[in-house]
Amino acid sequence: MMSELVLCFLFFLSCSHLVLSSSFYFSNYSTKLCAHGQTIALLQLKQSFSIDNSSSWRRYTLGCTTSYPKTDYWKEGSDCCSWDGVTCDLVTGHVIELNLSCSRLFGTIHPNSALFLFPHLQKLDLAFNNFNGSPVSVGFVRFSSLTHLNLSDSEFSDLISLEISHLSNLVSLDLSWNDGAEFTLHGFNSLVQNLTKLQKFHLGGIFISSVFPNSLLNWSSLISLDLSECGLHGRFPDNDIHLPKLELLYLSGNEGLSGNFPRFSENNSIMELDFSATNFNGDLPASMGNLNSLQTLHLFGFQFSGSIPSSISNLKSLQILDLSNCGFSGSMPAWLENLTQITSLSFYRNQFTGEIPNVFNNLRNLISLDLSTNNFRGQIPPSIGNLTHLYGLYFFDNQLEGVIPSSVNGFSSLSYVDLSYNLLNGTIPSWLYILPSLVELDLSHNKFTGRIDEFQFHSLENIHLSMNEFQGLIPSSIFELVNLTSFSLSSNNLSGISETSNFEKLRNLTYLYLSNNMLSFTIFGNSNSMLPNIEWLDLSNNNISGICRWNMGKDTLKHLNLSYNSISGFEMFPWKSMQILDLHSNMLSFTIFDDSNSMLPNIEWLDLSNNNISGICTWNMGKHTLKHLNLSYNSISGFEMFPWKSMQILDLHSNLLQGSLPTPPNSTLFFSISHNKLSGEISLLICKVSSMKILDMSRNNLSGMLPHCLGNFSKDLSVLNLGRNQFHGTIPQTFLKGNSIKTLDFNSNQLEGRVPRSLIICKELEVLDLGNNKINDMFPHWLETLPELEVLILRSNRFHGHLGLSKTKSPFMSLRIIDFAHNDFEGDLPEMYLRSLKAMMNIDEGNMTSEKVMREIRHVHICKGFKDWEFCDVFSQYCRHPRVLGFCDSPSRHNTLIFPSCTLSFQEWWKYSLIRGCRHNWPNHVKTSHAFYNNIISLCLYS
Question: Are the C-beta atoms of residues 426 and 448 closer than 8 Å to each other?
Answer without folding.
Answer: yes
